[in-house]
What we know:
218 residues, mainly alpha
Amino acid sequence: MAYIFLVVFALVNGYFFTNTFFLYDQSDMRALFSIVPLVYLFFIPAVSMGVISREKGLGTIEILATLPIRDFDLVLGKYLAVFTLIFVGLLTSSIHYITLTFVGTNIDHGAIFSGYLGLALMGGVYAAIGIFSSSLTDNQVVAFIIGIAIVMVFFLMDQLLVFVPSSMAGIVQYLSTGFHLSNISRGVIDTRNLIYFLSMISFFLFLTTHNVESRKWS
């Protein structure tokens, strides 16, 4: 199933890149970098929805709990499996970068590097959210819906600034994954953006580990 989602991910990205390159005569990666976060909204919850919920549904989570490994190690292993899939998906889009390089277009290699870095970090956050959602239920569909809901909240936060008090605007903007991605994609690799992404990953992995631990005593 993961390979199916990976193929779909590559095809969608390829479609939008091709449209931009051939139909609109734009020889850059901006369109691709703007569409990948939207693909993430569905792709990542889909590939992570069964990571833990499937184990719960089959009853194998109790078997895993008896293994001589820490709960965090179990969660981290599953997280790395999902993140690796996301990373491979990003690698498939590197063919577009290679294409632009060979056709001799004047591209900003630094901006492309920072764009990929931002997408990888955003994917890491959404993977942690997806696994957390999967730990909340034994139903994969429910986990998928919860994952999409949480991911969309963080993705759209900076679009909701007009609806929040000015005193809260800074906090809401800081919590937005889109805000930090846009900063990095412009080539601004600020430690504050890196700290945000890494903190979000750690936070949701912590919550997931707590849910797995509590399962032992339920």
